[in-house]
Input
Amino acid sequence: MKKPMPAPTLSELMEKLDLQQVIPRILDVKAAPNARYYHWDRLFHIKPPDNLSHLEWWLGIKLARKTILNEIRFFDKSQQPFLYALPDNVHRMLHEITQDASGQIQLGEEVTNPYTKNRYIVNSLIEEAITSSQLEGASTTKRVAKQMIRSGRAPTTISEQMIFNNFRAMQFISESRNQSLSPEFICELHRIVTENTLDEPQMAGCLRKSADDITVIDELGSLLHAPPEASELPERLKLMCQFANKTSSTEFIHPVVRAVILHFWLAYDHPFIDGNGRTARAVFYWSMLAQGYWLTEFISISSILRKAPSKYARSFLLTETDENDLTYFIIYQLEVIQRAIQGLKDYLGSKAEEIRKVESLLRQAYKFNHRQTALLGHALRHPGMQYSIKSHLRSHNISYHTARQDLLDLVEQGLLSTRKAGRVSLFQALPDLFEILQDSADIAE
Output
């Protein structure tokens, strides 16, 4: 990909321009023109306001941004600090994400019902594991990868191993959300992510060494990023963990902004010989969950990033080519999070509509009576629910014999399973009831 045009720095602008003439004409320039946080690479191709050159316009923007930029204890290779701003559109996105991902969002019973919650979590973990690996070059299909994870079979290729590792890493993060971040935690996460996939297997979970010539290049071999020296990594990881655990500063940083900065930080430092991107995205998930953004467990950011990987890479470069301004990366990642949340809403909406259609077909099916139709519809909306003969007869005010026959008939048709709990027979819909009914040729007619 083409590296963005480096932005003129504030000091360079002040040297090149006659400030006495320019300052009075740029006093009204806003930090984010047209509510967009433009980089010089983009701004250079837009017509500036009347009577201003591009350089003068950029100076006005840089001066306006300087008043809202916040410095953090994260430094580049030259010991220059990284900064970020919270323009109005960022405040709006943070408010919306907080409402959706940490509040009591009305996403339907699927993500709150204990019987269905785990199934949706597993689905999202699988999706993130697959797409995060595909971002790094894994080439197997989603269908094959999902079958491998769900069946429990061992990976047979490097691509499958990457996906399997990512799935285990996401499980590890979910289980470790109450742990503090530490260099040891990050190394263990990297070990899980890269196990049996590296050319040098002993480097799984180990920081790169000075002899490792690690750079990020594009498909044409052009240098995009050269990370800090390996000798600096122990101290840099320590600072990153202090930032993650909120022990490095008394200044408030919005939790989502903190998680996004951690994503950038680990990718920038590139502490491992491989697997840095997957580890950085996993640390983002840890941070979101650790800070109470529970809905993050149900979404996949990599599925969004994979649709436009060059934009993802560019969001890193925009920061590095404009005086370490993290705002570009933050805005892009907030948009990704919002798209992932909307994707979950759309998915749940489509599943609810599919259930309504199946329920409608159930009502038209001649082989179910109205009581069986009601029970199957209830089971579709409440997976894992158990029924007894007594509960069924009370619901429909029927005899014990009729209730028993209704349930046994559904067992015979392969829709319910039954087991004994003491002397009571309990009935439960099969886990794939929806698929069975949807595929039923009799119902479809």
